[in-house]
Amino acid sequence: MPTFEIVSAHDCPMPVPIWFKPPAGTPTGGALLKEAGGALTVPLQKDGDYLVTVLPSVKAGQKRRFDLTKGSAGPGVSLKAEGEHQLSVMLPDGLFTTYHFAPDIPRPFLHPVIGPDKRRMTRDFPMLDVAAEKAAKDQDHKHHRSFWTAYGEVNGVDDWSEDKAFGRIKHQKLDKRWEGSVFGGFSATNQWTSSEGMPLLDEKRTLKVYAIAPDYRLLDYDVELIPNHGDVHYGDTKEGGLLAFRVYYSMKGALGGKMVNALGGVGEKQVWGKRAAWLDYAGMLENGTYGIAMMDHPSNLNHPCYWHARDYGLVGTNPFAKAAFEGGEKREWLQKKGEPYRFRYRVLLHRGDHKVGNVEASYHAWIQPPTVTVVP
């Protein structure tokens, strides 16, 4: 069996260079990496042409050797259908999130989003009428549905709000599903339309959730915008989030929560409308501090993105606006027919603030993944 040498990691999903069809005798189903001379054993799972694993933290530059062995790991990430229009993502300790895609909702969304220690980390309104949110006056902006994707000016259509004559994002189908000891999730096809139902663009949305240490939740969220129906014009508006969150009411900045970005900006005045590779929103949940870190991949259009981030609890990534945040003359972003845009995001739910959550290290482990090599 092959032996692998891994240099540096921080709870980071990484591809292991085994190509399919693999060498004779290499396991393709249940497989494990067992540390040579150590006690650590981690599972592997097929993802396209590679096997993928998640290795716990090691010091920068540290080398560790692992042998590929046959075997299977315990439960990781699984899926559970909840009726015809909901799909739940389950971790070994219970529900992580549920994807809602009924035909009568304005746009698909994830709710609830459960973080470490089973803490709810996104707002319940308007899906649920919760007394604590009402008391905190946190039932504004009904279109802020927990965790979602939308944009405010698409060929002149408001595909962000739920005001009069707003556009919709309509679920078309679930394409793929993944379950396994390392990751699980799904991909879905949606269509963005005008209020009259005219197609504007198609969208492929992919969610992958990783089974990592219990004090973290880690997911990759990809949004591919596909102009199959003609050119698409994105207006210069702050009202958008290709990745958007509304944090749980007790986490918001207005109640003592703290937003920090990759450049050291702190609070709404220093992070709203600023460009940064990542943004972390941390605040109180019951008796402790928890945070949501959102990361923008360098391959994304106009990286680093602008952040529509508010003390009242909203965070959204915006790659298209400029004047809306910086002032000056408004511009319109043109996407030519047949030229898709892919946006890659990583989300880390963690205990503590951005330092306790190791957000900076997690971001760099994502964009500069650990090296994995086959050795004799």
What structural category characterises the helix and strand content?
A: mainly beta
CA-CA gap between termini:
10 Å
> How confident is the prediction overall: mean pLDDT?
90
Task: Summarize the main sheet.
Answer: 9 strands, antiparallel
Query: Oligomerization state of this entry?
Result: single chain
- As a percent range, the share of helical residues equals under 10%
SSE pattern, N- to C-terminal: EEEEEEEEEEHEEEEEEEEEHEEEEHEEHE
Tell me the number of strands: 26
Rg on CA atoms, Å = 21 Å
Principal-axes shape call? globular
In terms of DSSP E residues, the strand content is: over 45%
- Number of helical runs? 4
Low-confidence regions: 19-28
Topology at a glance:
Blueprint: E1 3-9, E2 12-16, E3 31-35, E4 41-47, E5 50-55, E6 58-70, E7 78-81, E8 86-91, E9 94-100, E10 109-113, H1 131-135, E11 147-154, E12 157-159, E13 168-178, E14 183-193, E15 199-210, E16 216-226, E17 232-234, E18 240-246, E19 258-261, H2 268-271, E20 278-285, E21 288-296, E22 306-309, E23 314-318, H3 323-326, E24 333-335, E25 341-351, H4 359-367, E26 371-375
Antiparallel strand pairs: 1-6, 1-26, 2-5, 3-4, 3-6, 4-5, 7-8, 8-9, 9-10, 10-11, 11-12, 11-18, 13-14, 14-15, 15-16, 16-25, 17-24, 18-23, 19-20, 20-21, 21-25, 22-23
